[in-house]
Amino acid sequence: MQSKRRILLIIGGGIAAYKCLDLIRRLRERGFSVRAIMTKAAEQFVTPLAVGAISNERVFTELFNLDDEREIGHIRLARDCDLIVVAPATADLLAKMAHGQANDLATSVLLATDKPVLAAPAMNPRMWLNPATQRNVAQLKADGISFIGPAVGEMAERGEAGPGRLAEVPVLIDAIERRLAPRDTAAMPLAGRHVLITSGPTHEPIDPVRYLANRSSGKQGFALAAAARSLGANVTLIAGPVALPDPAGVTVVRIETAAEMLDAVTQALPADVAIFAAAVADWRIAKPKSEKLKKSAGSEPPALKLAENPDILKTIGHRSKDRPRLVVGFAAETENVVANAQKKLKSKAADWIVANDVSPETGIMGGDRNTVHIVTRDGVEHWSDMHKTDVAEKLMVRVAIHLGQQSADIA
Ligand code: CTP
């Protein structure tokens, strides 16, 4: 018989905290054991007595409680479970988690744990949509934390509506079940697949201190790597110079130039899927100087002669040996987005092109959101504006379905 699955529930301080009582009850009905930690703010909304009565377990609230530490230290608390669920995950708790703070029991446990974490945000819609919260969520997703919700709807505050409601209890339970199910990682949709992703800009040296570059932040590629990993893939992320941390569980190869990127991609083959999200510089300086270029009085500024860089997507798309089964390119356009993407699909021998409008007014280049069009030989799918992490998750699910169908066709 399967042993009881153990949930550590961290209850944050929001009006939705009361729903945790129902969540605990339903989880126990399904055979989970639930141990709870409450933040100070949570105690303003539900009492430890109520949580303890429903969970039939001792409730933990203090970091510096000698009795608790003697009985079960916070490190053990962080590890003696199969899954940590943070619900409601308030804006404050998410901010602390994203920055690795550990100034109370809940945050210390979250920092000390080696278990999967599922966060269920709940807050005012403006707080949720605030760029600071969105940054924190993107960081946490890149760190491997899963999210469920928030749901869209009426808020406790009169007249306020939007994304910010705690996901309903059945939805939370479903997410918990799904997060625990892949204990058998072989059952994950991309298990055993190698996914290769390029991301970020490239820097092309002019001399030892100057370079040509572009505005790519690498966010979309890093989000794709995290999403592929969360579906069980072995992921190699080949990244140009960006200020993003390595996504958890992903092999990251950091490079600078287009030539180095091509080299790293070729070395990382074979792969089942290759996604070229990088904004590779089309040109490099033909002959970069080994010494810093100096101004000299009265002379003309230097004329920089450019040479064309290798097209990495095109090279891999046209490969006969070791061509990944699915080759996905991106198309950064400022006009005729879909038509230009269709041309790139053909000329680069890609299977799919993810096209986006990178005109400055869209804020896509460097921003957190993206509006994409999926161009394939069969047609075009338009996806509405969403967070880059959501684009990544949706795209990787599509990849998994595609590979699944291909395998079924082969069998
Ligand atoms: N790409 C690449 N190597 C290059 C240039 C582009 O691998 N040297 C890939 C990008 O990663 C992306 C796709 O090709 O997946 C399209 O890139 P994009 O910048 O939109 O197009 P370009 O081919 O550079 O064409 P143009 O700049 O003229 O639109």
Low-confidence stretches: none
Q: Which CATH top level class of the largest domain fits?
A: Alpha Beta
Number of domains as seen in the coordinates: 2
Helix content: 25-40%
What structural category characterises the helix and strand content?
alpha/beta
Strand content: 15-25%
The total of beta strands comes to: 22
Gap between N and C termini? 34 Å
Walk me through the structure:
- There is one protein chain.
- It is elongated and about 80 Å long.
- By secondary structure, the chain is an alpha/beta fold.
- Helix 1 packs across helix 9 (169-180) and helix 5 (91-98) packs across helix 8.
- 34% of the residues lie in helices and 24% in strands.
- The strands form six sheets. Strands 13-12-9-14-17-18-20-21 form an eight-stranded mixed β-sheet, with helices on both faces.
- The chain has helices at residues 19-29, 48-55, 66-71, 74-79, 91-98, 105-112, 125-129, 131-142, 169-180, 219-230, 258-268, 312-317, 337-347, 388-410, and strands at residues 5-11, 32-38, 59-60, 83-89, 117-121, 146-147, 151-154, 161-165, 194-199, 204-207, 210-212, 234-239, 251-254, 273-276, 283-285, 306-308, 326-333, 352-357, 369-370, 372-376, 379-382, 386-387.
- The chain has two domains: 5-180, Rossmann fold, CATH 3.40.50; 194-287 and 299-410, Rossmann fold.
- The structure holds cytidine-5'-triphosphate (CTP).
- Residues 198, 258, 276, 278-280, 282, 309, 311-313, 329-332, 344 line the site of cytidine-5'-triphosphate (CTP).
